[in-house]
């Protein structure tokens, strides 16, 4: 490889790193900044409180973000998705889904989530089952057709249910990512060339520090 190409590659990685740092650090509350007074009990208490307020919750779109649908209608994880969700959960970072389904699938989020699980599992072809248990009751779906994304309702409900935790939203479409960003989410568009497939776990973890 030519030296100029290597230099360009290194420079591109540096630019990417700076962009990710900016994305995450600009989203961290001012109170979460570390203090140099290691001996101050009040400062330590404030740091703990800030971390509790900043606890990250990562929401995803489902189709073509975590799950891929093949031409034959079969479904399975996108490359790297299962390992990514597992890495988040290993750090005790909560995860959730914000996804469009027909509002007629149920009267509550739980009912619609149960129907969604049936539909996905019925066509699942991946070697590893979808980890529904990791998402708990954080599977948000439209109560009415008017709530379907890109309407803001689902993101607003996710944010309202997250307390003071920072919320992240990852999806494959620019429109959804932009709406989430406008509502106070830390946004990340997946599947972009020359960028990590998902927002690196280390950067997500930093939101809670």
Automatic annotation (TrEMBL):
Keywords: Signal. The keyword Signal applies. InterPro entries: HAD-like_sf, HAD_sf. Transmembrane segments: none annotated. The keyword Signal applies. Residues 1-32 form the signal peptide. It comes from the Bacteria. This is Hydrolase. It comes from Streptomyces alfalfae.
């Amino acid at each position: 490889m030519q030296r100029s190409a290597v230099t360009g590659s290194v420079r591109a990685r540096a630019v990417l790193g700076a962009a990710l740092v900016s994305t995450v650090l600009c989203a961290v509350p001012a109170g979460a900044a570390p203090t140099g007074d290691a001996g101050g009990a009040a400062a330590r208490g404030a740091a703990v409180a800030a971390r509790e307020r900043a606890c990250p919750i990562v929401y995803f779109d489902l189709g073509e973000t975590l799950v891929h649908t093949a031409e034959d209608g079969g479904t399975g994880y996108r490359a790297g998705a299962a390992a990514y969700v597992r890495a988040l959960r290993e750090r005790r970072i909560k995860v959730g889904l914000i996804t469009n389904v027909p509002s007629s699938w149920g009267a509550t989020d739980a009912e619609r989530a149960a129907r969604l699980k049936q539909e996905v599992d019925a066509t699942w072809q991946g070697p590893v089952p979808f980890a529904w248990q990791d998402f708990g009751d954080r599977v948000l779906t439209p109560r009415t057709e008017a709530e379907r994304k890109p309407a803001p309702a689902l993101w607003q409900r996710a944010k309202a249910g997250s307390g003071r935790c920072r919320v992240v939203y990852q999806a494959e479409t620019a429109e959804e990512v932009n709406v989430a960003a406008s509502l106070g989410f830390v946004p990340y568009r997946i599947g972009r060339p020359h960028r990590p497939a998902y927002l690196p776990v280390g950067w997500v973890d930093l939101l809670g520090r």
